[in-house]
């Protein structure tokens, strides 16, 4: 009988320990100072770069490379690394303008100040994205991070960016470039294609939609005349003029509205893009999106590079390199992200 008397006491002790530890973690998290980042070096154009006089001219110039990214406190560390990698590998870094889209509820002034502190010379704009414009259309997916309204901002870039911005390279915050972004921006889009991205036709395309979708002929026939392949929306070259003329934001929203009624897919903002564009996008070499380095969405297991050359490494998936490095459980490829990390270490002293 003695073990039976001790067992409840053990449970009480464990419960007390967990509750106390959790409370301490919450207090420590609340007391933790905001992330601080080092200042990055300044990068200059090579001699053959076209000269653009000022930021206003830069925004509307045909010579400008436009890079769009979302910006928030949760992924700011990844964004800083991505910016550094883009500038470091660009032949004409002074001809790049960054378009950062932040939630309307975020502290945009703090985000702007954080960027300026590390990149005081950077040419960029911060735009506010109204979460309410899309929050009512979002359905729950297999991972809560995919349900953030800001994750859908890429569908609204044509409405958010100035009308004179005709083409943009959209990039997620969990990647680094090791090649010149101008090469990616120069991807030809053909006569009428809206976007360009690396396609992966060996992926099981049917798995991105539910049996409800495939069993309904009026839905599954969406792909009848298209060689539909998976593509990752974290790296895209978008013709904003064509997007605006075709009202593609509305076409994506229509599929999201149907999803709310019928549950035709599981994976956040990706399936609406596949429904609208898969099978009709301009090709991009796979080296421009070595994706999936964050592992799968459930276990976050380490993954290796795809065969072939590498121009962009993308930690899409559950595991992010900064989190794994902080936890002292990095994947081997996280060492390729670490040199771009601008985070100041605790108790470090500036020279």
Provide a descriptive summary of the structure in words.
It is a single chain. With 351 residues, this protein is an alpha/beta fold. It has a domain at 59-290: Spore Coat Polysaccharide Biosynthesis Protein SpsA, Chain A, CATH 3.90.550. Helices cover 33% and strands 13% of the residues. The protein is built from 13 helices and 11 strands. Strands 3-2-1-4-9-6-10 form a 7-stranded mixed β-sheet. Strands 5-11 form a two-stranded antiparallel ribbon. Helix 3 (76-88) links the parallel strand 1 and strand 2 (96-103). Helix 11 packs across helix 12 (270-277). The longest helix is centred in the N-terminal third of the chain and has 30 residues, at 2-31. Residues 1-31 have low confidence and may be disordered.
């Amino acid at each position: 009988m003695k073990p039976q008397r001790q067992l409840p006491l053990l449970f009480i002790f464990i419960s007390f320990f967990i509750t106390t530890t959790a409370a301490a973690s919450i207090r420590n998290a609340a007391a933790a100072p905001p992330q601080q980042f080092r200042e990055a070096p300044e990068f200059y154009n090579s001699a053959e770069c076209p000269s653009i006089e000022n930021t206003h001219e830069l925004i509307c110039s045909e010579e400008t490379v436009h890079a769009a990214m979302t910006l928030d406190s949760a992924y700011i560390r990844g964004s800083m690394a991505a910016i550094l990698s883009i500038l470091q590998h660009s032949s004409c870094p002074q001809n790049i303008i960054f378009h950062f889209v932040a939630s309307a509820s975020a502290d945009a002034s703090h985000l702007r100040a954080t960027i300026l502190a590390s990149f005081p010379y950077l040419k960029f704009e911060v735009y506010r994205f109204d979460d309410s414009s899309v929050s009512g259309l979002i359905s729950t997916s297999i991972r809560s991070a995919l349900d953030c309204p800001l994750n859908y901002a890429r569908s609204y870039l044509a409405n958010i960016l100035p009308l004179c911005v005709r083409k943009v390279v959209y990039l997620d915050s969990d990647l680094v470039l090791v090649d010149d972004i101008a090469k990616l921006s120069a991807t030809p889009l053909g006569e009428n294609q809206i976007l360009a991205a690396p396609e992966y036709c060996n992926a099981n395309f049917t798995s991105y939609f539910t049996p409800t979708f495939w069993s309904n002929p009026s839905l599954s026939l969406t792909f009848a005349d298209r060689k539909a392949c998976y593509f990752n929306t974290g790296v895209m070259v978008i013709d904003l003029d064509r997007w605006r003329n075709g009202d593609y934001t509305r076409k994506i929203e229509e599929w999201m509205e149907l999803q709310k009624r019928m549950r035709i897919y599981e994976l956040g903002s990706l399936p609406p893009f596949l429904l609208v564009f898969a099978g009709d996008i301009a090709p991009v070499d796979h080296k421009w999106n070595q994706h999936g380095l964050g592992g799968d969405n459930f276990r976050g297991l380490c993954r290796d590079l795809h065969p072939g050359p590498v121009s962009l490494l993308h930690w899409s998936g559950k595991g992010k390199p900064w989190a794994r490095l902080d936890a002292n459980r990095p994947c081997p490829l996280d060492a390729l992200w670490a040199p771009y990390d601008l985070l100041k270490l605790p108790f470090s002293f500036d020279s």
